[in-house]
Write a structure and sequence with these properties.
By secondary structure, this protein is mainly alpha-helical. Helices cover 80% and strands 0% of the residues. Helix 1 (2-28) runs antiparallel to helix 4.
Length: 89
């Protein structure tokens, strides 16, 4: 019984940590200075090909945010899974 209690505690701790990391990563994408918003919001150039357009600051920032959001949501899912396992054990 003690082993199950320790396992439940560790699953809960891992779940809470993973959920916290995920929430931070998803939320971090919304924190931006006015200077950064001006930097990525104003178009500097527009290319005729996708490769050129992928170098635009706005596009690069959107892709970076998308990547971080996916990572954050993965951590939230992982943390929730550990919390559910802790309850079921």
């Amino acid at each position: 019984m003690a082993v199950l209690s320790i396992l439940e505690t560790w699953l809960t701790v891992i779940g809470l940590v993973a959920t916290s990391i995920g929430a931070f990563l998803v939320g971090w994408n919304d924190i931006m200075s006015k200077q950064k918003a001006l930097e990525i919001g104003l178009p500097r150039w527009a290319g005729s090909t996708d490769e050129e357009n992928l170098q635009m600051p706005f596009v690069k920032e959107l892709l970076r945010r998308n990547k971080n959001s996916r990572r954050g949501l993965s951590f939230v899912l992982l943390g929730t899974t550990f919390l559910v396992l802790a309850v079921l054990v």
